[in-house]
Amino acid sequence: NRDFKYGEWTVMDGLIEFTADEADPTNVYWYVGLVDAEPGVNVTVSNFEITLPDQAYYPADGVDACSELVRGGDGNLHGFNTYPFSKNYGEGTIVKKTEGTNNYFSLDQRPYHWCGIRSYINTKCLQVGLTYTISYKLRVHSTSPVDTYVKFSWQGGSLSHVTQCATQQTIDDDWVECSRDFTVDESLATQPPD
């Protein structure tokens, strides 16, 4: 997702998410490959590492881990890495961008309307009756008015329109803040932990 220039070093980073099957101790084979360079192009790699996310992604000692379900939503953690956000569909490209002092996440080249940005949440925090405030700033790049909303999804089900911006947006609206209090119901509270 970067512009590469011949003979110059380029920092690459990304997110690797392991499924339960992939992380199973009986799965003894994994490989990482750098691919898709054109034939005949030499690729040099330096300082390759795979690490856990930075300490800032975890609650501080003594802080309730359920007090903030999504950490790093302001885009100010971990350089270019988009963690804890990823795309919910295989196509498209999620990147972290900067305008002035504002860091934000962008999903480019979306092939379908259901392609979006996602973040996993700790389902152990979802207890019936707990109320969370869901808030985000959104900017769309469309000349036609579009609706956007937050959706909870889990294996075998989903809950759409958990919160929705009050009006449709176009590119002329710039950043719009959307916010709503949301109370956890039985359908979310009974989901198994990821």
From TrEMBL:
Keywords for the protein's UniProt record, in alphabetical order: Hydrolase
Q: Where is the CBM-cenC domain?
A: 81-186
Give the matching InterPro entries. Answer: CenC_carb-bd, Galactose-bd-like_sf
Q: Name one GO molecular function term.
A: hydrolase activity, acting on glycosyl bonds
Keyword Hydrolase annotated: yes
Could you tell me what this protein is called? CBM-cenC domain-containing protein
Task: Give the originating organism.
Answer: Pseudictyota dubia
Taxonomically, what lineage is the organism? Eukaryota, Sar, Stramenopiles, Ochrophyta, Bacillariophyta
